[in-house]
């Protein structure tokens, strides 16, 4: 900083009492002088009933920039906070906004009644077999109605107040701080005792309120594991939950994330090819092996019933984040009796014509923090898709999973994406196998591989070939191909969206 002619600002508890003319103070003063630093705090920063010391300091390289400095009287800690106001030009951080639907005046009954008046347009879907046209009509009816009952609005993100700090506790905190200031003025033993009583009372009240609040929350959601984990995460907050403020323009940031998330796969593939070339490793051709099955053992999609679609929808959680259309599963469930027939017809048309609607291929990507939120590589993408598309995906998953299980087409060693299998069962299997080998005096080796950007770098051609190899019919493979291709995504930071960019690899996650 000195060689670059940058400003130096040192703040902290140096555990050196600047009110005493001792050896430690002289050493710190000499050190500061050598670096051309000035100590600007002059009043005690730690005050007890028997002593007062100045051990929390602020060292600055340019005292001329100091507009104001001092000590703040508060009861947060036995160390009083120190502050300094500098004459600097700092960029103003833009406020963070988010666009979502306002359900303040939403009434499910009124919404459904209004939707019934447009049932003619919904029923017209049943005579159409063009999936994209069906979806456009479906979305237009649903959107135009929902926009009246739950319009899209832009909200400024604000930090939520602590739910268990009541007005009574806030008044006690004010009284506590008032008595602290009284003691600092009088230095009287009686005022110190009164302040400590208020301080201890506030701590006791806050702990009791937090305990009661958590107990009531756990009791209310004891049968919902997802809600229980949410409560636990609220008790132990993480940095990811903090509202992130970006120094750059949100539009620029969103474009940066879009470019990173869509280019990282190509970069990973290029790196793999380069490593193989440098190490003289021949890349295998996974498309060389072809497996054929009798026609009666091939997987084909079957038409789904309204009952099955209804069962799938009602089993899906209502609190999942909506996709680009901002229509959540809660709304779909509210109007399900009205839209069930057209929705089922649309899904069946998709399966029978091997066509996945284009509007369902657009994903909204939210960066999830893993470090410094402004560095794109420290974030992983979370793709938000339209909730109705997930219903179609669930239908496909159920039918294809049943086929794989019936014909035993999946490896017995696969644990991911299998019912009754998990990382726990895999760990038990691996551990038991290793222990058995050790008991039999056999040499044991374990190789662990971590695929970089595994979901993002899936090759569509390889995936489709594997689907054929495990029994998917040409018509089914065509549906999967249409599902994978023609996709695009955009990044969203708050309410600011980037432009869309096509996706050539990977699957939504």
Secondary-structure map:
Blueprint: E1 9-13, H1 23-34, E2 38-39, E3 46-47, E4 52-53, E5 56-60, E6 66-71, E7 82-86, E8 97-101, H2 108-116, H3 119-123, H4 131-149, E9 152-156, H5 167-186, H6 189-220, H7 225-235, H8 250-278, H9 306-315, H10 329-334, H11 336-353, E10 362-369, E11 379-384, H12 387-406, H13 423-439, H14 460-469, H15 474-484, E12 488-493, E13 496-497, E14 501-502
Parallel strand pairs: 10-12
Antiparallel strand pairs: 1-5, 2-5, 3-4, 6-7, 8-9, 10-11, 12-13, 12-14
Helix pairs in contact: 2-4, 4-11, 5-6, 14-15
Pfam families: Exo_endo_phos_2, RVT_1
GO molecular function: catalytic activity
Give me some keywords for this one.
single chain, 509 residues, alpha+beta, 3 domains, 5-stranded mixed sheet, 15 helices, 14 strands, extended, DNA/RNA_pol_sf, catalytic activity
SSE ordering: EHEEEEEEEHHHEHHHHHHHEEHHHHEEE
Number of domains: 3
- Give the end-to-end Cα distance, rounded to a whole number of Å: 44 Å
Number of helices: 15
Cα Rg: 32 Å
Number of β-strand runs: 14
- Assess the beta-strand content as a share of residues: 5-15%
Largest sheet: 5 strands, mixed
The chain-level structural class is alpha+beta
What is the share of helical residues?
40-55%
